[in-house]
Amino acid sequence: MKILIITDLEGPAGVNGRSDGIGNKIINLPAATAALTAEVNACVEGLIESGAKEIVVVDGHGGSNSIEIQSLHPMASLHTLGGVMAPANIVDASYDAVIQLGAHAMQGVSDGYLNHTFNSHAVAAMRVNGELIGEIGVCGLYCGYFNVPTILVSGDQAACREAIEFFGKSVCTVPTKQATARYTVINRPLGLLYPEMKKVAAAALKKFSQDASKFPIKKILAPYTMEVQNMCPNIADAMEKIGAERVDYQTIAFHSDDFIDLWAQRNGWASGVHNRRFNVHPNLNKKQES
Questions:
Q1: Which residue range forms the structural domain that includes residue 253?
Q2: pTM for this one?
Q3: Within this chain, do residues 118 and 233 fall inside the same structural domain, yes or no?
Q4: Is 241 contained in some domain?
Q5: For residue 204, which of 44, 6, 8 has the smallest C-alpha distance?
Q6: Would 285 be classed as within a structural domain?
Q7: Torsions phi, psi of 200, nearest 5?
Q8: In terms of CB atoms within 10 Å, which of 63, 106, 203, 259 comes out highest?
Q9: CATH value at residue 125
């Protein structure tokens, strides 16, 4: 079994955040990164217990500098993001399952700790085919493109709720804390959280190994339209110049029949260029049947 763990830094227990003008700022970075790494390690231990042979951890928070490899479980590889490929190339069809760890709810959720959608200083809302979507959903669709199911999501109670609403009750969740506002939260006791993380990760992978159909792959039928409502019209001005549709003063839209191409456009690629450049298709790096 080859498992991908996609991490973020807002969701682990013990992360302390405050307002940074419009958006969010994590103010205890050393403690936050240590907390993220501890949750990752507990998850990895559970996956190994249930037969995982290869585990790749994506340092998915902005800057990709939230996990120190010296502190990471020795059986996990670390994938950092940068350069022209980031952030649109993190998974392919060689993976069996994906876990989102340290997740947060989408922008505008009243009980979501440090809630935002990809950029807390820039994005007011994001929709795919008319439905509101956040980072949990986009990651799920991205992995689903390669037929890789999401089996576990961890984060605050709003993130876990969003995961269940998006993927259905089949997805496993581990709540790390309970927020009452964007910067106010009660963290779970670590002595209870880490053992639960290990236990749920082990159970999720065991359940998947026994019957993969218990974790349906989330997909949305093409054609796709992604609307991004920006906080500032200057962002819409810039994206319109490279081919995005201008919906209104601060909203832009991207269109495609291919979800990865759609997501690449949102990240600055012209329509069709990203997939040609990296030879992206649903069977990319698919394991050969023996």
A1: 224-278
A2: 0.96
A3: no
A4: yes
A5: 44
A6: no
A7: -70, -40
A8: 106
A9: 3.40.50.10780
The residue among 214, 248, 264 that closes a domain is 214
Q: Picking from 36-40, 95-99, 276-280, 286-290, which range would have the lowest pLDDT averaged per residue?
A: 286-290
From residue 11, give the alpha-carbon distance in Å to each of 107, 244, 286.
14, 32, 31
Same domain, yes or no: 168 and 229: no
Reported as a single tens digit per residue, the pLDDT across 102-138 is: 999 999 999 999 999 999 999 999 999 999 999 999 9
Q: What count of residues does the chain have? A: 290
pLDDT at 82: 83
Is residue 167 assigned to a domain?
yes
What pLDDT, on the 0 to 100 scale, is given for residue 290? 37
